Amino acid sequence: MTTSSDSPLVFNCPSCGGRIKTLRSQAGTKCKCPKCTAAVVVPAPEESLASSQFPGRDRLDSPATQPAIEQQIRPSDDADDEEDDFKLSDPVERLTLEPAVSAAHIDSLAGDEPWSELPKTSRPPMQPDPVDVAQGRTRLLDSQPERPMLPPIPQPVHVFQIMTELDVIVRGIGMSMALSLEMILVIKAIEFRSAGLLMVASMVFTMAAVVFGGLLAVAASTVFLAIVRDTSNGSQRVESWPQPAFAEWFIESLYIWTSCFLGLLPGLGVAVVLDVIGLPSWLSWCAAPVSLAAIFPITLLSMLEAGSFITPYSEIIWRSLREATRAWRLFYAGSAALMLVGLLALLAQIFGGYWLILPANLVLIALLLIYFRMLGLLAWYWANVSVVESADED
Q1: How far apart are alpha carbons 194 and 181 in whole angstroms?
Q2: Does the first or last residue of the chain, that is N or C, have fewer Cβ atoms within 10 Å of its Cβ?
Q3: How many C-beta atoms lie closer than 10 Å to residue 179's C-beta?
Q4: What are the tens digits of pLDDT across the range 100-119?
């Protein structure tokens, strides 16, 4: 059994904070820190106890651990007793320090467990624990601001606010350029066919216009649907843009094209009747666009509310026609204004030459983006009105 003067002494280096193990008999002498090589005065046992903050340190003094410690730190027989400015005993040099970790980390892991059962780590001193990092990252995500929402009653400024979003601008320019290319393909196909020459070239341009036009229609439909859905959910910004999956795009586009077909169908029937009874032809031309403008928004919102493009009827949407009449009137008035400006842009690119195709298409795409924004705002307004009415009834 070792005496109290030969029992181990553990303390922190005042320079680097590293752990130093030596003997109690070395108190008051100088030794080198094995980590930073600084000259350190070995403190008295009482001082080292206050500075080390080493959980489980009393286990080193227990009788069960003394034989193993005595075998590791037995002093050398040829130790030099001469006084030196920096006196470093052999036991200090032979002891192997455990990897330095923060005291807080040891306290959280060790508790009252013996030092031999503490988990070892190869991380540098004071490196944060991965669990703490994950928790901090979670707190950071929780503290992020929520998505900005629209007011229950949207204002006219919210209609045009969509044209200030960078994502919308980039997609609008891309669709405008694609639409311009589609118009050029159509014009070339007509020119070659009307000339009676190069029929093969005409067929090539026609097929290219059909294929490219179909792809453009599918891609544009998904963009318009994203605007309607995010706006109808109350989001100021459009964030649910379609992912690059053409099969899903095709299914999503059926909402738009089914609504277009159902909107045009009554107008085409009326146009046939007008031609049969001999009324002016311009009335027949107006029947289809008027029918489309009147029925398209109702069928599209009904399909979106039902979650299926084969369900063009929704009691909720039809009830909004009766109970939110003013909102629908404002929507139809805005739609009429957009159609008038769109007609002027279409005539400009038909009779203005090639150099007006791109500017006119930029206007047309911008009008479509604003139209679907208005439709989403209408749905958002009705959702808030219906919720308030349900609460009043309860």
Answers
A1: 20
A2: C
A3: 22
A4: 444 454 444 444 444 334 34
298-303 own/partner pairs: CB under 8 Å, 24+ apart: 299/258, 299/259, 299/262, 299/263, 300/228, 300/255, 300/256, 300/259, 300/375, 301/375, 301/378, 301/379, 303/255, 303/258, 303/259
Instruction: Write b or e for each residue in 300-309: b if 16 or more Cβ atoms lie within 10 A of its Cβ, otherwise e.
Output: bbbbbbbeeb
Q: Could you list the beta-strand ranges (E) of 57-98.
A: none
First to last CA, the chain: 84
Cβ neighbours of 389 (radius 10 Å): 11
Dihedral over Cα of 152, 153, 159, 164: its sign: negative
Q: Which of 342, 250, 229, 242 is nearest to 292 (CA)?
A: 342
Reported as a single tens digit per residue, the pLDDT across 275-289 is 888 888 777 788 889
Residue whose structure tokens are 């944060």: 128
Place of tokens 């489980």: 56
How far is residue 317 from each of residues 150, 371, 391, measured CA to CA in Å?
A: 20, 18, 19
DSSP 3-state assignment of 87? Answer: coil
Grouping H, G, I as helix, E, B as strand and the rest as coil, residue 34 is coil
